[in-house]
Specification:
- The complex is a heterodimer.
- Chain A is α/β, with parallel strands linked by helices.
- Chain A has a single domain, classed as Alpha-Beta Complex (2-enoyl-CoA Hydratase, Chain A, domain 1).
- In chain A, the strands form two sheets. In chain A, strands 2-3-4-5-6-8-10 form a seven-stranded mixed β-sheet, sandwiched between helices. A two-stranded parallel ribbon of chain A has the order 7-9.
- In chain A, helix 3 runs parallel beside helix 4 and helix 6 packs parallel to helix 7.
- Chain B has one domain: 2-Layer Sandwich (Ribosomal Protein S5, domain 2).
- Chain B starts with a strand and ends in a 5-residue tail after the last helix.
- Chain B has a five-stranded mixed β-sheet, covered by helices on one side.
- In chain B, 30% of the residues lie in helices and 26% in strands.
- The longest helix of chain B is centred in the C-terminal third of the chain and has 15 residues.
- Classes of the chains: A alpha/beta, B alpha+beta.
- Strand 1 of chain A pairs parallel with strand 2 of chain B.
Chain lengths: 314, 128
């Protein structure tokens, strides 16, 4: 009785208003808002019941999509592959199935040479399936690099509640381009991890201003670790994704050498800084400018005024 | 983890199940945000598995007079509460042909009722 034109899924909550918050949105709402209306087709949706084989061992509930929504749609008329992590399910953490869905998507991108948009929201690898999760991170990075080498841009969007941490940050580091909002956080180790391993003198995980000025979107953008800084609104992330895909650099040996030398320079210049504020001073931000307090427009104007504004290399 | 299964016979067919294929022609306009007639869908997913929350997957997969609710919940020992919530839901709606599959992270009964209602609404193609 079904016809081809019949939609497979109706998602909840429904599509949001034009200026809806990316931070507050679910994985499915972000996909709906990112893509051209009504163009999303999900691969391995909830009905396929590809659930985690590990969580039941720990008596934990599973989710039918394992917290990873992947599929295809159109962005500004062009076909793209998309992946979105659901941060509310296990903090968006990577497990075996969650990771395999992204690996498969990236492998398809390499074959089809279609751009990929990854909507990160993750604390890293799921501790309950750590080995499988770590392997998934490695497989994803390999598939991502293969896709880029094949000519498919892979761009990452970071602005969810859980941030982008652990293995997720490593994957983000491999992307052709990254966009972040002020609320987005990008770091390998999270605040709690650093405090647990190095002590509260090293990092106080209860100090929220410290977290945001060290790992938050503004600092990452100032440092050149991301390519675009956007307001916390779904259309802004959509525009950023379109621009990042259009401007994605080719991945080749020259590019890798350029990135390496840029990172070496960055380390030499800022490696001695004890706090993000010291980095900002070294960048030329005046001592009386309170970076965390700046409105997005004023912040972007500040970045424009600094010579590091030209973030050609991440 | 507790696994519960409820089966409700003698249900009225769920809304518009007979007109699913006939209505599909208007999908394009509906998806473009037009406020036209809602289009029933073959399956729907609502909610997220998190503390105090749950996901409900609904599929049009059963005979027209039958409804099933399959629950996996992290909160054990609440079978009687689930029974009451499902019975209340089944009394009020036309659920024939629908299979509800629930992954529960310990949601309260009111949250469960809300998600079930949203799932039914989503199946009818409406705004949830």
């Amino acid at each position: 009785m079904n016809t081809l034109a019949q939609p497979e899924q109706q998602t909840f909550p429904p599509a949001l208003n034009g200026d809806a918050s990316w931070y507050e949105a679910s994985a499915r709402q972000r996909i709906d808002g990112l893509l051209d209306a009504g163009t999303f087709t999900e691969f391995l949706g909830p009905g396929a019941r590809e659930i985690s084989p590990h969580l039941s061992i720990f008596d934990l509930p599973t989710q039918f999509d394992d917290g990873m929504v992947v599929g295809q749609g159109r962005l500004n008329g062009a076909t793209v592959l998309v992946a979105a992590q659901e941060g509310k399910f296990m903090g968006g953490a990577f497990g075996e199935v969650h990771g395999a869905k992204l690996t498969g998507l990236l492998r398809a991108a390499a074959v089809r040479r279609v751009p990929v948009v990854i909507m990160f929201e993750t604390g890293g690898v799921r501790l309950q399936e750590a080995n499988a999760g770590e392997l998934a991170i490695a497989e994803i990075m390999r598939a991502l690099i293969d896709a880029r080498l094949a000519g498919a841009p892979v761009v990452g969007l970071i602005g969810g509640r859980a941030g982008c941490y652990g293995g997720g940050s490593l994957i983000a580091g491999c992307c052709s381009g990254l966009a972040i909002s002020e609320l987005g956080r990008l770091s390998v180790s999270g605040p709690e991890v650093i405090e647990t391993n190095r002590g509260i003198e090293e990092f106080d995980a209860a100090d929220r201003p410290l977290i945001w000025r060290t790992m938050g979107g503004k600092h990452r953008y100032l440092l050149g670790a991301v390519d675009a800084f956007v307001d916390d609104a779904i259309p802004q992330f959509r525009d950023a994704a379109i621009t990042l895909i259009a401007n994605a650099p080719a991945l080749n040996l020259e590019r890798v050498a350029l990135v390496q030398s840029t990172l070496a320079e960055r380390l030499a210049r800022f490696g001695g800084c004890a706090d993000a504020a010291d980095v900002w001073r070294a960048l030329g931000v005046a001592a009386d400018v309170d970076v965390p307090d700046l409105e997005p427009a004023a912040f972007l104007a500040l970045v424009q005024s600094l010579k590091e504004a030209d973030h050609d290399v991440r | 983890m507790e696994h519960l299964h409820y089966r409700q016979a003698n249900q009225r067919p769920a809304d518009a199940s007979a007109s699913v294929s006939a209505a599909s022609a208007s999908n394009a306009t509906r998806n473009a945000g037009d406020a036209c007639t809602p289009v029933p869908v073959a399956s729907a997913i609502v909610g997220v598995v998190a503390s105090g929350n749950l996901e409900v997957l609904v599929e049009r997969a059963l005979p027209d007079d039958l409804c099933e609710v399959d629950i996996r919940t992290s909160a054990t020992g609440f079978a009687d509460v689930w029974q009451a919530v499902i019975a209340d839901f089944a009394d009020r709606g036309a659920l024939g042909g629908l299979r509800f599959s629930i992954n529960d992270g310990g949601a309260r009964p009111d949250t469960v009722s809300l998600r079930l209602a949203q799932a039914l609404r989503a199946m009818a193609g409406g705004q949830v």
